[in-house]
Amino acid sequence: MDYIIEAKNLSKSYGNLKAVNDISFKVKRGNLFAFLGLNGAGKSTTINILCSIIKKDLGDVFIDNLNIDSDNRLVKEKIGIVFQNSVLDEQLTVYQNLKSRASLYNLKKNEIIERINNLIKILELDDIKDRQYGNLSGGQKRKVDIARALIHNPKILFLDEPTTGLDPNTRNTVWNILHNLMDENGLTIFLTTHYMEEVLRANHVVILDGGVIAAEGSPDYLKDLYASDLLRIISKKNNEIESLLNKNKITFNFSKESYQINIKNSLEAFEIINLNPNLLSNFEVLKGNMDQVFLNVTGKKLVKTHD
Ligand code: ADP
């Protein structure tokens, strides 16, 4: 499989602080790659290195098989970046903003118009294309930011918390558009986010902690390793249930009127329930999730920075 990003032994220090400490990872072409970590973990430093915004101290980065040190100009053509804070002009209309951005690239006039019209279509901006950027809603602005980042047809889109502060509906709309871009154009997405439900659709997740990689893998792999499913049992015969669980050496917690048992998978729940179904008045199986993974890997909850 072809890797579009390869980072090898990256390090970056600020004085004595090792912001990024010898990390290596790869991103497959066309994948959604999620880069997670608490504030201060080193995500922005890494992204800024990959995008040649800051210089690394040590290591190598290859973007689409090009070395970012020796092929810097070509590398820049391959990447688009959506920053947390917009870089567009509040006074200009959506169309004027996109046109001014497109003029930075070596494109012919009709090519520019064609690209902008195409992005207006893909990102559903037709209704707002003549409105001032500064007057748009958060969700509308985000879509325009994405259009701006795609104007030169990059192969990789870096998205730094693209949906923070957006309502769930708008988040969905943005994600539908992004997934279409991946499916139809083979776009690779490098994502940082605080929303764990967005991570579930990632092909590969890297969790950064204190400048080093604390865990990585697919969401399913990480859930298997770091999160367990939970069986919750409600019973009217607490004494009997407890002695049954103890007899079978099953560890449990009791809180909020229910017994909670960590299980490997739903099948194990089935076995426990079958020990004596008559003792149960109700039960449910809660699947392990990425929040649990994050908590178990870093010891802390990933909280939204500004929402
Ligand atoms: P994240 O994006 O995961 O929140 P950052 O990469 O921004 O993390 O920061 C990693 C660490 O490096 C933090 O401790 C941060 O304070 C520090 N840091 C980042 N940029 C600078 C800088 N320009 N000067 C000094 N320290 C910095």
Commentary on this structure:
With 307 residues, the protein is of the alpha/beta class. It has two domains: 3-223, Rossmann fold (3-Layer(aba) Sandwich); 228-287, Alpha-Beta Plaits, CATH 3.30.70. 35% of the residues lie in helices and 27% in strands. It contains eleven helices and 14 strands. It has helices at residues 43-50, 72-78, 94-102, 109-122, 138-150, 168-185, 196-199, 219-226, 238-247, 266-273, 290-298; strands spanning 3-14, 17-28, 32-37, 58-63, 66-67, 79-82, 156-160, 188-192, 204-209, 212-217, 229-234, 253-255, 258-263, 282-286. The chain has a six-stranded mixed sheet with strand order 6-7-8-3-9-10, sandwiched between helices. A four-stranded antiparallel sheet has the order 2-1-4-5, covered by helices on one side. The mean pLDDT is 93. Bound molecules: adenosine-5'-diphosphate (ADP). Residues 14, 17, 19, 37, 39-45 line the site of adenosine-5'-diphosphate. Adenosine-5'-diphosphate is lined by residues 14, 17, 19, 37, 39-45.
List the helices and strands and how they pair.
Elements: E1 3-14, E2 17-28, E3 32-37, H1 43-50, E4 58-63, E5 66-67, H2 72-78, E6 79-82, H3 94-102, H4 109-122, H5 138-150, E7 156-160, H6 168-185, E8 188-192, H7 196-199, E9 204-209, E10 212-217, H8 219-226, E11 229-234, H9 238-247, E12 253-255, E13 258-263, H10 266-273, E14 282-286, H11 290-298
Parallel strand pairs: 3-8, 3-9, 6-7, 7-8
Antiparallel strand pairs: 1-2, 1-4, 4-5, 9-10, 11-13, 11-14, 12-13
Helix pairs in contact: 8-11
Bound molecules: adenosine-5'-diphosphate.
Residues 14, 17, 19, 37, 39-45 line the site of adenosine-5'-diphosphate.
